[in-house]
Predict the structure.
Amino acid sequence: AVVSTQSTGSQALLDLEANSDLSSALRGLYFVGAEEVVIRDDKVAVVIHIPFPQQKIYHKIQGRLVRELEKKLSGKHVIFLSKRRILSKPTRHSRNLSKQKRPRSRTLTAVHASILDDLVYPAEIAGQRKRVKLDGSQQIKVHLEKSSQINTETKLDTFMSVYKKLTGKDVVFEYVD
């Protein structure tokens, strides 16, 4: 299923590069993976993983690109995420031969925060709260800017499902002024 998703996504990008007004912006861009995430029984989202160095270029055209790809992929929600690596915490007995310190951007917390930022783009995260319930389970409440409600309101359940699948964390989205 992953191979068919990747080939479908790459074919859609090739069609856009050949026929649309995005062709000059898409030249030289590529993605490193794609997967389908089931939101409900009737809804599926396509998550496209892009190389981190190309993230800024994708952000410039992401609004138009997502609209065109959603048309081509028959209404499936399309989400672009940068491919990031989590490095394990160095311990005394770890086999890490390099004596470099682990960058903060490669920690689990930083990567999960970046995934959340990529997920809701172009919306801005105004704040977030972590709620710990009595049974020990945690839920993250993410506050999004009210100005982006028009574009993202229909995708909130998609954001929740994709974030849960990628990180295993429960998240709830709200809009604030």
